[in-house]
Amino acid sequence: MWSITRIENDHQTHFLLDDNAYGLTRGDTTPWSDTYCVHMVGGETPQVTGQAQSVDEYAQAKVNDTLDIAAYAGAPIRESDGTLFGVICGLDPQEQSDLPRIGTTLNALGGMLEVALAADREHRRLAAALEGAQQESTTDALTGVGNRRAWEQWLERLENDYGELADPTVVAVIDLDDFKAFNDGPGGHAAGDEALRSVASAIAQCMRDGDHVARIGGDEFGVILRDCSTAKAPEVIERIREAIAATGVEASIGWESLRVSTSVDECVRCADAAMFARKGRGRHHDPASSA
């Protein structure tokens, strides 16, 4: 089996693979600490060995509980800043005495993948800059954040980007609680409009480079959090909730992490369902879970 894997959320996920030995499929994951690759990337073990069980770290790896591995080959794939993107690795249930000869080729392939990754990152950066120049037609006139058209464009791009790179990403849906009271109060719709502007500004201030916020309904907002792991998401979501609360408005927020095995549309539906579930349980919710 040969696989290009993505390392995120402390798991190694099979991203592209050719598996005739183990029955694994795209999206299958293994805890990073259980793998052979964690030792290879750390420089503790040989990159290529035709007798994997003769290497102590490989013989003791927990992945052996589920996979019969007799031969192993791996090379890291790094971002241009040196951080780990993933690993190209090969596994075989049979020992392979001549496997070490592919080490040079494997490293060369890893280097080529790193060059392609850097070029792709730069292409996406330039595309994002162009989008910024075209932003006026996709800006909500009232709040200054993205409008529904922008949201749909961002989701379409996210589907393509995640399908190619699987960068950790979270989608959140935000619905303002009891917002009708603003429009029905003494200030009328003007008070409601001012509250929407304040909320949009509060959310936007929580965004980092690459994140997106859009007003996708009357009092509903959508957020895309790039480079945000499942473990990190509760902290970010809570920060957004507190920023909204500081404007005098309470909100119900549902979120979901993208996964290789699901589509962006499914992720949005799950986030929307989580938001409605929270709204049904009251205003104060634990952000630690997306469900």
Q: In words, what does this structure look like?
A:
- This protein is of the alpha+beta class and 291 residues long.
- The chain has two domains: 2-120, Beta-Lactamase (2-Layer Sandwich); 139-281, 2-Layer Sandwich (Alpha-Beta Plaits).
- It is 38% helix and 22% strand.
- The protein has a six-stranded antiparallel beta sheet. The protein has a four-stranded antiparallel beta sheet with strand order 8-9-7-10, sandwiched between helices.
- It is elongated and about 80 Å long.
- A hairpin with a 5-residue loop joins strand 5 and strand 6 (84-92).
What is the topological layout?
Blueprint: E1 2-8, E2 11-18, E3 29-31, H1 37-41, E4 48-49, H2 56-59, E5 71-78, E6 84-92, H3 103-133, H4 148-165, E7 169-176, H5 180-184, H6 188-205, E8 212-215, E9 220-226, H7 233-245, E10 251-257, H8 264-281
Antiparallel strand pairs: 1-2, 1-6, 2-3, 4-5, 5-6, 7-9, 7-10, 8-9
Helix pairs in contact: 6-7
Concise description?
By secondary structure, this protein is an alpha+beta fold. Helices cover 38% and strands 22% of the residues. The chain has 2 domains: 2-120, GAF domain (Beta-Lactamase); 139-281, Alpha-Beta Plaits, CATH 3.30.70.
